Design the sequence.
């Protein structure tokens, strides 16, 4: 699960409970479709194995991937099944407002990464995001970031695996063990053989599979409802506008525009898209600086239109329930409330005959698997370069690190399986762990922003800033509660002081508090401590000390700044259109 | 040279589309299309997938052929 979205518990996926939904029966043709997909991805792994000659090939794809591939992989690494299912769930709960996760959340951050931050990631020749922190700040800042990141990725991968196995058990009656064994074996084979390139290639295939597997749902749903107008007329008024009801917290999300723009748009989204190695690694695999910078922009274009495929199904589900004689209802959970996470699976069952059903389920499974592969590749890179090479086995040969990377792949997958079983038995502990990671991630963007744009920021400042931001997040969480909630995992465990209308509002404000604390403490401590790095050491790592020679593409359509402005303009237009 | 990604994408979608369209062609008028609003979605969507697969595969094959010619040493006759 991506940290940003696991943070937003409202968009999270929990399939632990018993859901009374009609099980889906697959035909031979559906199994054939799944089998073809597995054969092709495993085949890609084998076809790529000849390209893995050294550690750079394995961890960074030899920095040789064309931009349309890295761009789609960049987008797709985040497009796990949890996101597809979670966004459809939000679409059913909040309507068009859910698009803020895309048009306010993701896209501005992706463009900022492309235009302003990529030159330092790619140009510094750092091999990972934690390594950038080491070059820019110091060892302890890197250690803090790499250890939490490594643990977080294997846990996410485990959660993803658990969600896949539970969902398949629920929908198809598949055995939990078999689902886990088959999917992790497939991922292990293709990552082990082809490294990052394999993961990136399958992410792109999964992207097309999701688009082509889920768009029939949208087309059939809209046709059934009598088109766009037919859908909109059956939805509550608040579902049909993205901004109109954001002036106060009196809307389905319970969030007002300030929390939305600063909490989600600025702190959480920039923190995720600009610093999470899982996505940044895709851009670092690009074949030139210009391609690395265009990677997030290329990803932003389809991202802009993704609400069509992932949010509209949720709205279709709600409108369909309001339509006479549709015979459709969102399945209820054990408590009798609608289980919004079942929107996508139940629509698949409602509209898709065997055949197309297999395609949709294969797309769903492919996105679980590629989410796992993304986590595993980010994990093995950070483990090998930032932990093993830094603290355990220094100055070894390249072949040695390649071997470590391969072993780490196997270990990472075994650890994921372990965490999947852990999540199965101790769901609450997993939730708590993910909450701790949310605290760790919330302040992160302040550190990078100061690091890249203020040469005076010091290692001690960054380290203490991060720690105090995390502690501030924790304390704020302990003091805040949602209206009507009881103290516990959802906040207020210290002493409820602040009250919020929704969990989402609480999370957005928590992020703002953590970010601001980190920002202010980093500045204060930096000013109070000596600079450890000279201007010449910071060349290529800090904006003001780096020569701006990278935007030298001859054609305007290859220049990141111009492309970025175009995409930004289109995003603004979408916000206005759906105002 | 690295594997051209358009190749496996093309193969995947030609195979998936072929399977769906073929199955759709055999099941015209079947009861099961009631749920898809009486449209044989397997057939039509299968054709679309094949089209997409073809659009990926053909340029990749043409490029591979071109590269092959340019890198092969001239043959003596």
Sequence:
């Amino acid at each position: 699960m991506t940290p940003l979205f696991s943070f937003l518990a409202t968009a999270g996926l929990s399939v632990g409970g018993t859901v009374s939904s009609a099980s889906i029966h697959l035909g031979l043709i559906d199994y054939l479709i799944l089998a073809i997909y597995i054969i092709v991805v495993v085949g890609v792994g084998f076809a790529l194995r000849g390209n893995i000659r050294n550690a750079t090939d394995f961890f960074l794809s030899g920095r040789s991937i064309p931009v349309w591939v890295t761009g789609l992989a960049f987008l797709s690494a985040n497009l796990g099944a949890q996101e597809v299912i979670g966004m459809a769930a939000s679409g059913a709960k909040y309507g068009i407002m859910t698009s803020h996760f895309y048009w306010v959340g993701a896209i501005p951050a992706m463009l900022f990464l492309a235009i302003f931050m990529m030159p330092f990631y790619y140009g510094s020749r750092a091999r990972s995001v934690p390594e950038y922190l080491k070059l820019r700040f110091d060892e302890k800042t890197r250690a803090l970031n790499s250890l939490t990141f490594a643990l977080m990725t294997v846990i996410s991968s485990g959660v993803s695996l658990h969600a896949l196995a539970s969902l398949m058990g629920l929908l198809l009656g598949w055995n939990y063990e078999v689902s886990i064994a088959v999917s992790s074996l497939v991922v292990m084979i293709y990552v082990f053989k082809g490294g990052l390139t394999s993961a990136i290639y399958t992410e792109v295939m999964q992207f097309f599979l999701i688009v082509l597997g889920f768009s029939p749902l949208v087309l059939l749903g809209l046709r059934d409802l009598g088109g766009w107008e037919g859908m909109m007329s059956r939805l509550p008024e608040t579902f049909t506008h993205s901004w109109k009801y954001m002036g106060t917290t009196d809307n389905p999300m319970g969030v007002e525009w300030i929390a939305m723009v600063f909490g989600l748009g600025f702190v959480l989204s920039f923190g995720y898209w600009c610093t999470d190695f899982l996505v940044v690694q895709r851009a670092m695999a690009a074949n030139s600086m210009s391609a690395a910078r265009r990677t997030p922009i290329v990803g932003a274009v389809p991202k802009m239109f993704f609400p069509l495929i992932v949010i509209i199904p949720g709205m279709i589900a709600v409108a369909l329930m309001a339509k006479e004689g549709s015979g459709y209802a969102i399945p209820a959970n054990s408590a009798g409330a609608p289980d919004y996470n079942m929107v996508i699976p139940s629509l698949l069952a409602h509209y898709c005959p065997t055949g197309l059903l297999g395609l949709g389920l294969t797309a769903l499974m492919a996105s679980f698997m590629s989410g796992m592969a993304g986590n595993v590749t980010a994990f093995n890179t950070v483990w090998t370069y930032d932990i093993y090479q830094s603290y355990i086995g220094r100055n070894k040969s390249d072949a040695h690190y390649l071997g470590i990377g391969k072993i780490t792949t196997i270990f990472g997958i075994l650890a994921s399986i372990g965490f999947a079983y852990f999540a199965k038995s101790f769901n609450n502990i997993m939730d708590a762990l993910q909450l701790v990671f949310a605290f760790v991630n919330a302040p992160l963007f302040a550190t990078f922003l100061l690091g890249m744009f203020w040469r005076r920021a010091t290692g001690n400042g960054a380290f203490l800033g991060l720690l105090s931001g995390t502690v501030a997040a924790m304390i704020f969480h302990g003091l805040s509660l949602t209206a009507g909630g009881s103290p516990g995992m959802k906040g207020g465990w210290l002493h409820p002081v602040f009250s919020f209308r929704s969990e989402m509002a609480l999370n957005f404000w928590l992020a703002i508090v953590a970010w601001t604390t980190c920002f202010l403490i980093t500045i204060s401590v930096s000013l109070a401590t000596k600079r450890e790095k000279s201007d010449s050491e910071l060349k290529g790592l800090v904006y003001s000390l780096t020569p701006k020679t990278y935007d030298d593409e001859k054609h305007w359509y290859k220049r990141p700044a111009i492309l970025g402005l175009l995409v930004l303009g289109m995003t603004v237009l979408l916000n206005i259109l759906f105002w | 040279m690295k594997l051209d990604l358009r190749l496996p994408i093309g193969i995947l979608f030609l195979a998936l589309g072929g399977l769906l369209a073929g199955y759709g062609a055999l099941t015209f008028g079947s009861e099961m299309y009631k749920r898809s609003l009486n449209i044989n979605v397997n057939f039509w969507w299968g054709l679309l997938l094949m089209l997409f697969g073809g659009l990926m595969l053909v340029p990749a094959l043409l490029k591979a052929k071109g590269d092959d010619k340019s890198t092969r040493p001239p043959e003596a006759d």
Remarks:
- Chain B has a mean pLDDT of 83.
- Residues 6-63 of chain B form one domain.
